[in-house]
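>> received
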Amino acid sequence: MDLRVVAQQRRGLLRPRGVWLMLLVAVVAGAVMAAPYMLLDVEASRLEVDGGLHYALLVAHVFTATVALVLGPLQFVPAIRAHRRWHRLIGRTYLLVGVLPAALAAIPVALLSGRLVTQIGLVIPAIGWLVTGWLAVRAIRRGDVEAHRAWMTRNYALTFLAVTARIVVPAVLLILLATGAVARADASTAAASLIPIGQVLGWIINLVVAEVLIRRRRGMIAGSVRSPSFRPR
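>> returned
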């Protein structure tokens, strides 16, 4: 096989510095996301909850989603991927301790909210979380490494929603303030109402970026295959 093809197959979707930056952002965002729930104070909840069960499901979702958010970038580190035992251990923990319970908890949390935009913003990515995780596992079991990487990339794009939504909300709020659509005195109320919108836009943006990265990688590999490294003199 062409050595350049092998190199492209081993190379990840992101450069190592990009992966470590993503990990740093994930750790900081995870800490910020989980902080209001550390003391199990319902009054500190960032989302309105109806009662004890609703709050308990929300806490379970937040903590397990934080696990997935922090572990996810490690799956894209070439040095860790090279050690199959560690890669599998982290991957299984990411899916079984992070993604699976976080997705299962997110669905009732959204449905109990009674707000359509919140339900759309959480239920669709939660189902996508489960489906892409299953497809990633199925792909690696049949030995399709490239498909596995692609589905795991899409899966973590949904996980990273927790970060993107927190960027989208203030960005949209600033636009509304700048255009006069929202008064400065109403900024805090508007920010709370924008959270469900940020969730919807967040997973859409992330999946678009993931597809761009996946297609770029496929194009690079295809280009290496079409361009042989050995040419007769």
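>> The radius of gyration is 20 Å.
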